[in-house]
Design goal:
This protein is α/β, with parallel strands linked by helices and 220 residues long. It is built from eight helices and seven strands; from the N terminus they run H-E-H-E-E-H-E-H-H-E-H-H-H-E-E. The strands form two sheets. Strands 3, 4, 5, 6 and 7 form a five-stranded mixed beta sheet that branches. Strands 1-2 form a two-stranded parallel ribbon. The structure holds S-adenosylmethionine (SAM).
């Protein structure tokens, strides 16, 4: 659900060899890109909305939202749709950047921009990125054998210019970059450099955390 350009879908096909994989996303451009990955006849990508899936009940063994749930207008509705299309005994899973606790890769640059008077967009429902909220959602939806874990990742950059060239591409930051003066860009790069750690190889490093959760679908 929310397969975007198919990056996670490709990982699934490579690591889990599914009998069939179906990816949906509201963006036709992203779906087009996902189709061009050439994942073969066992994968299909279609325009669709996680809040109102076109699949029949019990159609899948597993449904997953990767980095999507906080974009949904009504996250519980998205979860109930995943549950509807998964057979009893199947799995509904999710992982999402923990933006509430500043765990998203874009949290740091967003914070600095805020301090400088800019307001990067945030997703409509950031609160569902927090682990206790996710557990509550999966519990309330009636799934069982719920397991959850934080996924901590670390990225390193050769220098601040490499960090800036990547960080300035986050969708919520990209909108702001054209409004920044060269002086403000230099200030932002200085702030970023000052708040990143340096590893033993002299590279700048940044950690991020995603919260992952899964549960088993029960008989209705
Ligand atoms: C950060 S991308 C994640 C892409 C993909 N899951 C991955 O990790 O490779 C978030 C995606 O959520 C999608 N999205 C937003 N609202 C959605 C909705 N109502 N139903 C399904 N997908 C949605 C966006 O179009 C975008 O492609």
């Amino acid at each position: 659900m929310g397969c975007g350009n198919g990056a996670f879908s490709q990982l699934i096909t490579e690591k889990s060899a599914p009998t069939f994989l179906s990816g949906i996303d509201p963006s036709p451009e992203q779906i087009e890109f996902a189709r061009e990955r050439g994942l073969g006849s066992k994968a299909a990508f279609d325009v669709g909305d996680a809040m109102s899936l076109s699949f029949s009940d019990d159609a899948f063994d597993l449904a997953v939202m990767a980095l999507v749930i906080f974009f949904l207008e009504d996250p519980p509705k998205g979860l109930s749709e995943m549950i509807r299309v998964v057979r009893p005994g199947g799995t509904v899973a999710n992982y999402i950047w923990d933006t509430v606790n500043k765990g998203s890769p874009s949290s740091l640059i967003s914070e600095h921009l805020n301090d400088m008077g800019y307001q990067p967009d945030s997703p409509p429902n950031p609160q569902v990125s927090e682990m206790t909220t996710l557990k509550h959602l999966w519990n309330s939806a009636g799934t069982t054998e719920i397991t959850s874990l934080p996924i901590i990742v670390e990225r390193s950059f050769k220098n601040i210019d490499e960090c800036w060239s990547i960080s300035s591409l986050f969708p919520n930051i990209q909108n702001i970059v054209p409004n920044l003066t060269n002086k403000e860009i230099d200030e932002l790069k200085g702030r970023l450099e000052g708040s990143l750690e340096v590893n033993s190889a002299g590279e700048l490093t940044q950690k991020a955390t995603a919260n992952a959760i899964k549960g088993i679908v029960t008989e209705p």
